[in-house]
Design goal:
Blueprint (H helix, E strand, L loop, with lengths): L11 E6 L21 H9 L6 E5 L11 E3 L7 H11 L4 E6 L7 H9 L7 E6 L4 E9 L3 H10 L5 H7 L3 E3 L13 H11 L6
Parallel strand pairs: 1-2, 1-4, 2-3, 5-7
Antiparallel strand pairs: 4-6, 5-6
């Protein structure tokens, strides 16, 4: 079988999902610092060298005066899926590396593994969350072909990206480090991740 022609592989943009209301957290997840910088900026800096264009997604008016490229939602009432549809509205012919800002242990190695495992002829490439027994939608490469699928899906009143990944049996891989799929949704979880990420004392 002939190898796919690299010229037919869609370019890859990046989207940092940071527009959630963080009700359970009680604070903006994108502003929490695990690595000495706001998490949305930390994730941006992880993704940006690996993509053509990278944006931080936000609700309208949520982020003001940022030096980072911000993409405000134009599709509403769909949670993070609205941010994904907004990204495809901006550039429907590129693939999107979509990463939520609430994975404190995510690192460059994990993202490189995802990129190296990318299947452009699939609708998406995602990590498989063994704990949940499901694809992890919020660290995924979404190919251009998924855009029309998502439009049809939301037209039926549905808003689960994970549901689409399941229904269409998209490409999934096992992370070499399963802990990168752990996310922080509560203040207690934030404190846990800060403790394990804190550099050892030199005293």
């Amino acid at each position: 079988m002939e190898a796919p022609n690299a010229s037919h592989i869609p370019p890859l943009n990046g989207l940092v999902l940071a527009g959630g209301e963080s009700r359970r957290m009680g604070m903006d997840k994108g502003l929490i610092e695990y690595h000495g910088t706001p998490q949305r900026e930390y994730v941006f800096n992880l993704i940006n060298p690996l993509t053509v264009n990278t944006y931080i997604s936000s609700r309208p008016g949520q982020i003001g005066g940022s030096t980072f490229p911000v993409l405000e939602d134009t599709v509403f009432n769909l949670g993070p899926l609205g941010a994904v549809l907004t990204a495809f509205e901006l550039d429907p012919t590129s693939a999107w590396l979509v990463v939520a800002c609430d994975f404190p242990l995510l690192d460059r190695e994990a993202l490189l593994q995802l990129l190296e495992s990318r299947k452009p002829d699939a609708l998406a490439t995602s990590f498989y969350d063994v704990r949940a027994g499901l694809p992890e939608p919020w660290i995924s490469i979404l190919e251009p072909g998924i855009y029309s699928v998502l439009q049809a899906y939301t037209a039926r009143g549905k808003s689960s990206l994970r549901g689409v990944l399941e229904d269409y049996k998209t490409h999934t891989i096992l992370s070499k480090k399963a802990d990168v799929l752990l996310n922080a949704n509560t203040p207690e979880e934030v404190e846990y991740f800060k403790r394990i990420l804190q550099p050892p004392s030199t005293e």
